[in-house]
Write a structure and sequence with these properties.
By secondary structure, the chain is mainly beta. The chain has a domain of about 40 residues. The chain is about 10% helix and about 65% strand. The protein has a 4-stranded antiparallel sheet with strand order 1-2-3-4. It is elongated. This is Methionyl-trna synthetase.
Length: about 70
């Protein structure tokens, strides 16, 4: 398992933050949308790029998940 973690790795870089509509269900704080770029590397060669949007509460720093 250690060899696999040395050969394959994923880096995440924050691109920006925006205010999102709604409130945190736990504490009622404001919600931020964070855009993140993920890079998956195999032996230092980039294989794929992923762009994700994560939602975080500004008061309790809890990660929020959207269900549809």
């Amino acid at each position: 398992m250690y060899l696999f973690s040395c050969v394959c790795e994923e880096d995440e870089k924050e691109l920006g933050r925006k205010v999102a509509p709604g409130a945190c269900p736990c504490c009622g704080g404001k919600v931020q949308a964070v855009d993140v770029e993920g890079r998956f590397r195999f032996c230092f060669l980039p294989i794929c790029f992923r762009f994700k949007r994560k939602y975080l509460c500004t008061l309790c720093s809890k990660r929020l998940v959207l269900y549809s």
